[in-house]
Amino acid sequence: MKKFMVAVVLAFFLMASTSVWAAKPYKIGALFSITGPTSFIGEPERNTLVMLVDEINKAGGINGHPVKLVVYDTEGEETNTVKKVTKLIVQDKVLAIIGPSRTGTTLAVIPFVERYKVPLISCAAGIKIVEPVKPWVFKTAQSDRLAVKKIYEYCQANGLKKVAIITVSNGFGQSGREELKSLAKNYGIEIVADELYGPKDSDMTPQLTRIRAKNPDAVICWGTNPGPAIVAKNMKQLGMKQQLFMSHGVASKKFIELAGDAAEGIILPAGKILVADQLPDDDPQKKLLLDYIAKYKARFGKEPSAFGGHAYDAFLLLKAALEKAGADRAKIREALENTRGIVGIHGVFNMSLTDHNGLDEKTAFVLIRIQNGDWQLMK
Q1: Residue ranges of the chain with per-residue pLDDT less than 70
Q2: Which of the four, 33, 116, 294, 306, has the lowest number of CB atoms within 10 Å?
Q3: What is the pTM of this model?
Q4: Can you give the pLDDT at residue 268?
Q5: Closest residue by Cα to residue 307 from 236, 254, 240
Q6: What pLDDT is stored for residue 205 in this prediction?
Q7: Cβ–Cβ under 8 Å, residues 28 and 68
Q8: Which residues form the signal peptide (predicted)?
């Protein structure tokens, strides 16, 4: 009888220890620009998500369910992204999708996730992703509106009243350009030049020559690599001494590498991850940031970028939603919309019926100056 009871107890514990893997997986999809011109964005996003999923599965999954991750490379291209999102929804039948990496690719897939009613947490910045609010679409990247406010606050405080803007002619650049133009008057700023460049342009000297003729107090460039690095180099070659601002679209060491010594002195709004070790100890995000940096570096041999943090936050939000909602897309969507007080890499998230980004300018951005080839937190 004793042997029988021991066998029963052992069987119970064995069943309990393997129950995680007996449960049906929570399948989530991801769309990142892992290769192509914007691979510097998508690669750290993919790496971060893989790391977090491995970590959660080793800890027993979510609600006893292992997480199955399906990742597709969009190559940063809209048509390819649409094909991949359709595959995730129709063939893979994922519960939710994280990504895409870019504003343009995100805007391209929104009609599909809305039609099929699949929660999407984008890692891109464009304000149009969540404004107007779309029921099934959320995002973790700080909105370009908050970034523009951060730059304009600095300009206002330092007497920079005449500003020239040069923006890339894609979804991210167009969104930033609209915010730069619409918010200028609120800060007493006059836009004296408004120039565009193509994503594949290799020389912005003509646009910058026209800007120089307007004699602005500052120049604001809005884009992602490699264009902004070319703008920085061309300005130096033309002997332009105006303060150059960049958007958060260059918030990775790749920009400093591409721009070289032309990056020196540039100011940009960015997430706190770039200067985590410079934050005060009472900052609510500091511990999470340092922990993420250490884990990423240990696994991949290099520090994560701000872009990896977008994927981190997306998984953090989705994990919390899955814990509440289980394998029900509609309930996941509802849980995401009711996110409150989640401390992430890029701020404290408080979603609502009218706000599917959930970040405010107090926690989302700090101003950073590039000094001696590295990031320096501006006080």
Answers
A1: 1-22
A2: 294
A3: 0.85
A4: 98
A5: 254
A6: 98
A7: yes
A8: 1-22
The token duo for 181 is 């133009």
Look at residue 22 in the predicted model and tell me its pLDDT: 63
pLDDT attached to residue 325: 97
* Torsion region of 30: left, alpha or beta (phi above 0 gives left; psi -120 to 50 gives alpha): beta
Q: Which CATH superfamily is domain 145-270 in?
A: Response regulator (3.40.50.2300)
d(CA 307, CA 277): 18
For 88, which DSSP code?
Answer: I
Please tell me the distance from the alpha carbon of residue 377 to that of residue 224, in angstroms, as a whole number: 21
Report the alpha-carbon distance of residue 341 to residue 126 in Å, rounded: 23
| Domain 8-142+287-364 identical in fold to domain 145-270 | yes
- Give the pair of three-digit tokens for residue 306: 């701000």
- What residue segments make up the domains of the chain, in order of their start? 8-142+287-364, 145-270
- Provide CATH code, domain 8-142+287-364: 3.40.50.2300
What is the model's pLDDT at position 13? Answer: 39
Which phi and psi angles does 252 have, rounded to 5°? -150, 155
pLDDT at 88: 98
Instruction: Please give the DSSP secondary-structure letter assigned to residue 379.
Output: -
